[in-house]
Write a structure and sequence with these properties.
The complex is a heterodimer. By secondary structure, chain A is an alpha/beta fold. Chain A has two domains: 4-224, P-loop containing nucleotide triphosphate hydrolases (Rossmann fold), CATH 3.40.50; 229-287, Alpha-Beta Plaits (2-Layer Sandwich). Chain A is built from eleven helices and 14 strands. By secondary structure, chain B is mostly helical. The chains are: A alpha/beta, B mainly alpha.
Chain lengths: 304, 261
């Protein structure tokens, strides 16, 4: 069996006037958690929709479990669990019936469906709400149920489109813990997210996309070290003398209007120097994050 | 773009989902088809019927109630099927995103739509059957021809369910359903030989009425109820069957165009 669960080559998606995905190539190995990052409109959801066969592919090649998707799509789809971006739980059914009914769409035998349902209700701490109507669930519980539903067919690949968008910190951490458990159990996961913290925590490898193209690919820590360095210094408010100083010293910085973010690669004493020379401004030293990489690569303009 | 159409028996899964939801509220769903004929029979039998007296329908003399009661069943079949695949399916598709969730499973869009149409037909068969029990108790269905009525209801249900789904595939929003209802469904309700025989209309209007699927469904249901099956009814059967096949293909195409991007 091939170790690559997903392999995509020169994949394209074009709508009437828009190229949403512009010839991207990547692969996801078995047991890996792979991230698709990018601003709104980068083409993440379009890519995912092609992956699970919802949208027809406009060009390029797409293989799932080593097979061309166009041939074995029904078999491939029965091995994938999908957590779509928008909330589409069935509001006409209870929590438990959502899972049981979804299991039927996969043609699971009744016994298996019931076992999986009870197991997943416990795994996602929903067993006390099994008879509750969907409308009465909190945002966090809904998300957990969507995840449970995506796992009902015991998939070999879990696809998550922004799994924690709109959740409070407690719910988000709970979802992360569950996903980490699943990853430890060997499940292959493909994830899109806007939260860099989430990507850094969960993803073994990731790509950052913008305007339908892949900008970079790598492990989160490698990308941080390559594009930003070990630490950054934030200074606010910025002014011309500060910028002049940074430029004469040849230091890289990003100007965010109300604050400057200085990328520091080599100089261990830089923070002390800046804090001394520019006393009276707020100087903060912090480790570089994936968010710094993301903003560095995709720019600061709003995508609307 | 290449289109691969795959349809398997998995549409039953979608049908089962709708049945499950229906069973949660079956007591409410059962009321209209049981009560409606009682109201109509009271109003039309006691009120209008005495005014009208007997009249000639085909080659026989008939009172108003035996004439009208079967039409009520035909109308119920139309409304149950049409409203299920128009408003109810639209809510599932557009507001609840139920179809999106289904399409993340091995189900295809074609199977989802066929499941919806089959369910709407089932719902109208249930309603027609309940109504048949009530009007049979009132002595307004003659047997054994009346035993064929559920089969006719299946065909009528499928036809009107497909018609509703065609509109669901093209309306921009839920308010737009008012158009097909006022321009198509309501005229059918009134002018399909339901409340009065078509012979009472001018000849051009009779011809126009023959295009309505409800006209043919009413003819078939009435023939079953009055035990007056005739060979000419084959044409009504063929017409409904053709209408069903054509509109179901249109619905599948329309939904594909609407949802697959």
């Amino acid at each position: 069996m091939t170790p690559e669960v997903i392999s995509v080559a020169r994949l394209k998606k074009t709508f009437a006037t828009l190229t949403a995905v512009d010839g991207i190539s990547f692969f996801v190995k078995r047991g890996e958690c792979f991230g698709l990052l990018g601003p709104n409109g980068a083409g993440k959801t379009s890519t995912i929709r092609m992956l699970y066969g919802y949208s027809p592919v406009s060009g390029g090649e797409l293989r799932l479990f080593g097979q061309r998707m166009s041939k074995n799509w029904r078999c491939a789809k029965s091995r994938i669990g999908i957590c779509q971006q928008e909330d589409n739980l069935d509001p006409d059914l209870s929590v438990r019936d959502n899972l049981l009914t979804y299991a039927r769409y996969f043609d699971l035998p009744t016994g298996t469906a019931q076992q999986s349902t009870e197991h997943l209700l416990r795994f996602f701490s929903l067993e006390h709400r099994a008879e509750t109507n969907i409308r009465e669930l909190s945002g966090g519980m809904k998300r957990r149920l969507v995840l449970a539903r995506a796992l009902i067919n015991n998939p070999d690949l879990l696809i998550l489109d922004e799994p924690t968008t709109g959740l409070d910190p407690q719910s988000r951490h709970q979802v992360w813990e569950r996903l980490e458990e699943l990853r430890t159990g060997g499940l292959t996961i493909l994830l899109t997210t806007h939260y860099m913290e989430e990507a850094a925590r969960l993803c073994d490898r990731l790509v950052i996309m913008d305007q339908g193209r892949i900008l970079v690919e790598g492990r989160p820590q490698e990308l941080i070290e390559k594009y930003v360095g070990r630490e950054v210094i934030e200074i606010s408010p910025p002014d011309a003398t500060l910028q002049d100083y940074l430029e004469t010293r040849g230091l890289y910085y990003e100007n965010f209007g109300q604050r400057l973010v200085v990328h520091n690669r080599a100089d261990a004493a830089l923070f002390a120097t800046l804090a001394d020379n520019f006393a009276g401004r707020r100087c903060t030293l912090r480790p570089a994050t994936l968010e710094d990489v993301f903003l560095h690569l995709t720019g600061k303009e709003l995508r609307e | 773009m290449k289109r691969v159409v795959t349809i398997s028996r998995r549409w039953v899964r979608v049908w089962q989902r709708n049945l499950k939801v229906y069973r949660q509220t079956w007591k409410i769903s059962f009321l209209p088809p049981l009560l409606e004929p009682i109201f109509y029979l009271a109003a039309f039998g006691i009120g209008l019927g005495s005014l009208v007296g007997d009249f000639t329908y085909g080659s026989r003399s008939i009172a108003y109630l035996p004439f009208f009661a079967p039409a009520l069943v035909a109308i119920t079949i139309m409304y149950n099927a049409f409203f299920e695949t128009s408003y109810a399916s639209f809510v599932r598709m557009y507001y609840q995103k139920t179809f999106d969730a289904m399409l993340a499973t091995p189900l295809t869009l074609e199977e989802v739509i066929i499941g919806e149409i089959a369910w709407a037909a089932t719902k109208s068969v249930i309603a027609a059957f309940l109504m048949q029990i009530v009007i049979s108790l009132a002595g307004l269905v003659q047997y054994p021809a009346g035993l064929l009525l559920p089969a006719v209801a299946v065909l009528g249900g499928l036809t009107f369910a497909s018609i509703g789904m065609v509109f669901t595939s093209i309306v921009p929003n839920i308010e737009t359903f008012n158009l097909p209802i006022f321009l198509f469904v309501t005229p059918m309700f009134l002018f399909s030989g339901t409340f009065f025989p078509l012979q009472n209309l001018p000849i051009w209007a009779q011809r126009l009425a023959c295009l309505f699927p409800l006209t043919h469904l009413t003819l078939l249901v009435r023939a079953c109820a009055l035990n007056s099956l005739a060979p000419s009814l084959i044409w009504s059967l063929v017409y409904l069957l053709t209408f069903f096949l054509a509109t179901s293909l249109l619905a599948l195409r329309g939904m594909h165009k609407r949802l697959i991007k």
